[in-house]
From TrEMBL:
PANTHER family documented for this protein: UDP- GLUCOSE PYROPHOSPHORYLASE, UDP-SUGAR PYROPHOSPHORYLASE
Cofactor(s) needed by this chain: Mn(2+); Mg(2+)
Top-level taxonomic group: Eukaryota
Molecular function via GO: UDP-N-acetylglucosamine diphosphorylase activity; UTP-monosaccharide-1-phosphate uridylyltransferase activity
Name of the protein this chain belongs to: UDP-sugar pyrophosphorylase
Species per Swiss-Prot/TrEMBL record: Iris pallida
CDD domains the UniProt entry points to: UGGPase
Keywords, alphabetical: Nucleotidyltransferase, Transferase
Reaction(s) this enzyme catalyzes, per UniProt: a monosaccharide 1-phosphate + UTP + H(+) = a UDP-monosaccharide + diphosphate
Family: Belongs to the USP family.
Any one Gene Ontology BP term: UDP-N-acetylglucosamine biosynthetic process
Protein purpose: May function as the terminal enzyme of the myo-inositol oxidation (MIO) pathway. May also play a role in the salvage pathway for synthesis of nucleotide sugars.
UniProt cross-references to InterPro entries, sorted A to Z: Nucleotide-diphossugar_trans (IPR029044), UDP-sugar_pyrophosphorylase (IPR039741), UDPGP_fam (IPR002618)
The protein's Enzyme Commission number: 2.7.7.64
Length: 624
């Protein structure tokens, strides 16, 4: 293929009027285009995209459509670092590598890296939590929520799904309340010397932007100031029809280029171009924490892992959990090149097995004697130190190593079954870092840190036995399990769980215990809030909503719901005995029920409960 420079010189020989000669249909329409649009047209021809105009009728016909075609081209050009010229060039290179079967890890040997392994509740963990909670006021949070969630098949946005149905708190509300609780706790720990608001950025896409904004607005931003939350919308990227990176036209609208999501890696370029990073730097912030749309446990892991970043001075800290072989989470891997270079990086779940097989591990991605893969599982919660992050982005403008995954029609690899596009992942950020960068990771127990909602009931039920379901059912049950285990560790007598099956998935059902983040963010908080002699039976439900609620000598066998305003200090004691709330099985094929309910396979039958509600300031003791 002719290079751009060669083409340019041919065109200049052809003269100013000659540049469009390869596309006569376009040439006859130049008079309807603005100078900027003509520039874009010229760029497209130079980049071998003549076919885009082949069907264009004479000027005067479909002119509006032709202009909107260029409006789209302008958007695609502006939203990619280096514009469409770079996109097409990168695509050609990656498509050529893919056709040649080039291994992206050529020359690298994988080995198991060493990182920080934390044990919930021990002295080190408690110290790190305290350090992290203190540091939180210097942080900014970035939630990537542009994904459609195709595997889950839910029609709404995932952030609006309940994380658990005892209180019905949706993921976004839980995340915001956790950040607000961190804000309060962090300011308290810094001797009240601060009035900071921790910023939250949400990356949306055309698929999620409007409903995300609506969810925030109709709930008064769940208690955040509207100015504290910024939405950055990622654009999709152009689809490609062939190995020459010819842009694909939409089969339903020949004046539109087909587009698809570029992946969560867009977050870095968007943050860079938004100017927020330098603003945060001026405000004295030190950390940027990235997280995903449906992990109801995540904030239980945040304080300690931020503590690790702070004490170790990590530029990059990835949160990880023990990984089951073939689980759909990337493996954190040390890669050593034949030339001596090394990096610690996520190897995505579909690449780990081929990489291992190609480097002498005949069995590929398998569990070792611990029952887990030796490679820790990346949960895509990244903590980046702001200053080195800005320095790196100044060089890269946030561009992240991309990949392409075309589905070829046959072994000649000359045509695709359907159009493809370039993709990128946010966890690939460290790939461009110099060897001096401090890149580490923190491993925590899965029960504490990771329970995403990604799979629909049918697919979840097919997950190999022993591997996690990652469904709405398992995500909710994981919250009850974590809360039960934390209270147990704090000395509460929690009854053993029972096994049950919902939507074809066997899960362990603990008492349905929930609390608002402001009640307790860290294990030390929990220990301060529970006294001696507390117990909760397996069939029980307990929901705590109040900053200063203390449980002491309390036994629950049934349902207890406690709420109190921040100014009320309430000690709850005595014995709760009622019919409680009962989990009722439902079938996910029963169309009369809402989708949110169907996906988890149960409803909660609220038969009887004790409600304690304090709306007046003061100090109270409530004996049940
Ligand atoms: O174009 C996109 C695509 C996705 N997302 C967001 O990115 C997050 C992750 O998307 P997926 O849940 O689809 O991610 P995967 O399951 O494919 O995998 C990712 O999350 C896993 C853990 O949940 C592992 O860490 C894995 O290595 C990592 O790539 C979600 O919040 C999603 O909304 C975007 O913002 N834009």
């Amino acid at each position: 293929m002719e290079s751009t420079a060669e083409k340019l010189s041919t065109m200049s020989i052809a003269g100013d009027d000659g540049w469009a000669s390869s596309a006569p249909t376009l040439r006859r329409n130049l008079q309807i285009l603005s100078p900027d649009q003509i520039e874009l047209a010229r760029m497209l021809l130079l980049e071998g995209q003549t076919h885009l105009f082949a069907h264009w009728p004479e000027a005067g016909v479909d002119d509006q459509n032709k202009k909107s075609f260029f409006e789209q081209v302008s958007r695609l050009n502006a939203s990619y670092p280096g514009g469409l010229v770079s996109y097409i060039k990168n695509a050609r290179n990656l498509l050529a590598d893919s056709k040649a079967g080039k291994n992206p890890y050529d020359g690298f040997t994988p080995s198991v890296p060493s990182g920080e392994i934390l044990t919930f509740g021990d002295d080190k963990f408690i110290k790190l939590e305290e350090e992290g909670a203190k540091e939180a006021r210097n942080a900014a949070f970035v939630l990537v929520a542009g994904g459609l969630g195709e595997r889950l098949g839910y029609k709404g946005i995932k952030l609006a799904l309940p994380s658990e149905t005892t209180t019905g708190t949706c993921f976004l509300q839980h995340y915001i309340e956790s950040i607000l609780a961190l804000q309060v706790a962090s300011c308290k720990l810094s001797q009240g010397q601060c009035e900071t608001m921790i910023p939250l950025v949400i990356m949306t896409s055309d698929d999620t932007h409007v409903p995300t904004l609506k969810l925030l607005e109709s709930n008064s931003y769940f208690g955040m100031k509207a100015t504290q939350v910024k939405l950055l919308k990622q654009e999709k990227v152009a689809c490609l029809d062939d190995n020459d990176a010819r842009l694909a036209l939409d089969s339903n609208d020949k004046y539109r280029i087909q587009t698809k999501p570029h992946g969560h890696g867009d977050v870095h370029a968007l943050l860079y171009s938004s100017g927020l990073l330098t603003q945060w730097q001026k405000e004295g912030r030190k950390w940027v924490l990235f997280f995903q749309d449906t992990n109801g446990l995540l904030f239980k892991a945040i304080p300690a892992s931020l503590g690790v970043s702070s004490t170790k001075g990590y530029h990059v800290n990835s949160l990880a959990v023990p990984r089951k072989a073939k689980e759909a989470i990337g493996g954190i891997t040390k890669l050593t090149h034949t030339d001596g270079r090394t990096m610690v990086i996520n190897v995505e779940y579909n690449q780990l097995d081929p990489l291992l097989r190609a480097t002498g591990h005949a069995d590929g991605d398998v569990n070792c004697e611990t029952g887990f893969s030796p490679y820790p599982g990346n949960i895509n919660q990244l903590i980046l130190q702001l200053e080195p992050y800005i320095e790196e982005l100044k060089k890269t403008r946030g561009a992240i190593a991309e990949f392409v995954n075309p589905k070829y029609k046959d072994s000649t690899k000359t045509s695709f079954k359907s159009s493809t596009r370039l993709e990128c992942m946010m966890q690939d950020y460290p790939k461009t870092l110099p060897p001096s960068a401090r890149v580490g990771f923190t491993v925590m127990d899965t029960w504490l840190a990771y329970a995403p909602v990604k799979n629909n009931p049918e697919d979840a039920a097919k997950v190999p036995k022993g591997n996690p379901y990652h469904s709405a059912t398992s995500g909710e049950m994981a919250i009850y399990r974590a809360n039960s285990l934390i209270l147990r560790k704090a000395g509460v007598q929690i009854a053993d769980p029972v096994l049950d099956v919902f939507n074809g998935q066997e899960v362990v059902v603990w008492p349905r215990i929930t609390w608002k983040p402001k009640w307790a963010l860290t294990f030390s908080d929990v220990k301060k809030k529970v006294g001696n002699g507390c117990s909760i039976s397996q069939r029980s439900t307990m929901a705590v909503n109040g900053q200063n609620v203390f449980l002491d000598g309390l036994s629950v066998d049934g349902t207890l719901v406690v709420s109190a305003i921040d100014e009320a200090e309430v000690k709850v004691t005595g014995s709760v005995q009622n019919k409680g709330w009962i989990l009722k099985h439902i079938d996910y094929k029963d169309c009369s029920l809402p989708e949110e309910t169907l996906t988890r396979g149960f409803t909660i039958d609220k038969v009887e409960q004790l409600e304690v509600n304090h709306t007046e300031p003061g100090k109270f003791e409530f004996r049940c």
